[in-house]
Design a protein that fits this description.
Layout (H helix, E strand, L loop, with lengths): L1 E6 L4 H6 L2 H8 L4 E6 L12 E2 L9 E2 L1 H9 L8 E11 L2 H8 L3 E5 L5 E2 L1 H7 L2 E4 L9 H12 L32 E2 L2 E2 L9 H19 L1 H4 L6 H11 L1
Parallel strand pairs: 1-2, 1-6, 4-7, 5-6, 5-8
Antiparallel strand pairs: 3-4, 9-10
Helix pairs in contact: 3-5, 4-6, 7-9
The protein binds adenine (ADE).
The site of adenine has 11 residues, from strand 5.
Length: 240
């Protein structure tokens, strides 16, 4: 996968892209990244990237031409996903991460002012994405959050045999509780079933725990989850 970041603050990406899994993905050649400072493409007197809004009003608006010029230098294809970071965008979630992880080329446009000239949206952007219902000072942190969630899904990034099916949200439910050694820790025991070696029982227990957890912590997720009759019984029993 190739990822280009259009940003006024390329240094912000250095720590994140040069550590841990993202660094390993780059070292293994599974991920290529490039930051592009679109101020370099503002061919005006003071390399100005923003301007006052037509019609008046507060704040500044990102000018179209630095972004358009920077985009023209990128090696895009009709399949490139061009993602505008904005609190007005579609909510980022695991499903969107899975969809973007199948792309070969992503471009993140990270703004830092009140808004974008609408022609950027109209002519360049394929996806508008928000990382949550709060306003940040810029799109860089959201782009890094999305990068992390997307890149870990690329085959071989986390190792050959890691499956994402049990990740929280992948199945539509939260992940079940996990334990490791020791068996007893300061009087707290590991549930017996996990030590039983009975894989069918363990599977069943994990599925029930996922249902309980989701019901307690994120009941909104259950609204879109296809509960089986058996699941409904499990939850009824739990609620009682
Ligand atoms: N830029 C500012 N706030 C944002 C948010 N919540 N999501 C994505 N981009 C943003």
């Amino acid at each position: 996968m190739r990822i280009d970041y259009l940003t006024l603050f390329p240094e912000m990406f250095e720590g994140v892209l040069n550590q841990s899994i993202l660094k390993r993905a780059r070292d293994k050649g599974l991920l290529k990244t490039q930051t592009v400072n679109f101020r370099d493409y503002a061919h005006n007197k003071h390399n100005q990237v923003d301007d006052y809004p037509f019609g008046g009003g507060q704040g500044m608006v990102l000018k179209p031409e630095p972004i358009f010029n920077a985009m023209r230098q990128l090696d895009t294809t009709p399949q490139t996903r061009v993602i505008l970071m904005t609190p007005q965008g579609q909510p980022f979630n695991q499903k969107r991460a899975e969809s973007l992880a199948r792309a070969e080329h992503l471009v993140f446009i990270c703004g830092h002012y009140e808004g974008y000239d609408e022609r950027i949206r109209e002519a360049l952007v394929t996806d508008e994405v928000s990382v949550g219902d709060y306003v940040l000072t810029g799109g860089e942190l959201p782009a890094m959050v999305m990068t992390d969630a997307i890149v870990r899904l690329i085959p071989d990034v986390l190792g050959n045999h890691v499956s994402h099916e049990d990740d929280s949200f992948s199945s539509g439910l939260l992940e079940y509780p996990q334990y490791t050694r020791p068996r007893a820790f300061e009087g707290l025991e590991v549930p017996e079933v996990l030590l039983s070696g009975n894989h069918a029982h363990i599977e069943q227990w994990r599925h029930e725990q996922s249902l309980y957890r989701t019901y307690l912590k994120r009941p909104d997720l259950l609204e879109n989850y296809p509960l089986t009759d058996e699941d409904k019984k499990i939850l009824e029993r739990y609620k009682r």
